[in-house]
Write a structure and sequence with these properties.
This protein has a three-stranded antiparallel beta sheet. β1 and β2 form a beta hairpin. The chain starts with a helix and ends with a helix. Helices cover 59% and strands 14% of the residues. The longest helix has 25 residues. By secondary structure, it is an alpha+beta fold.
Length: 86
C-alpha cells in the first residue's frame, strides 16, 4: 500500500495517442480563445476571433501554438508530486 503513488504515476507515463491528445486539446484551445477575446474586449482592446485564432492590433495569434504544452502536463505533475513528498 505504501507504493500506490508510484503505480499511479506509472499509469501517467503511457503516452497518449495523437487523436486522444487532440480530443483533449481542441476544446481547451477553443475555450481559451473565447476567454481571451472576452477579457480583451472588457479592457477595450479591439480583438477579432476566428476559430482558435485571435487578431490583436493587426497581428494574428494562434491559440493552438500557445496551448501546445499538453504533453508537459505529466512532467509538471511528477515534479510537483516529487517536491511535495520531500
Amino acid at each position: 500500500m505504501r507504493f500506490w503513488p508510484v503505480f499511479l504515476m506509472l499509469g501517467f507515463m503511457v503516452p497518449l495517442s495523437n487523436r486522444t491528445r487532440l480530443q483533449i486539446a481542441e476544446p481547451l484551445q477553443t475555450g481559451l480563445a473565447t476567454i481571451v477575446a472576452n477579457v480583451l474586449s472588457v479592457f477595450g482592446e479591439p480583438v477579432g476571433r476566428q476559430g482558435n485564432a485571435l487578431t490583436v492590433n493587426g497581428q494574428q495569434v494562434l491559440i493552438a501554438e500557445a496551448c501546445n504544452g499538453l504533453r508537459m502536463v505529466f512532467t509538471l505533475i511528477l515534479v510537483s508530486w516529487g517536491c511535495s513528498r520531500s
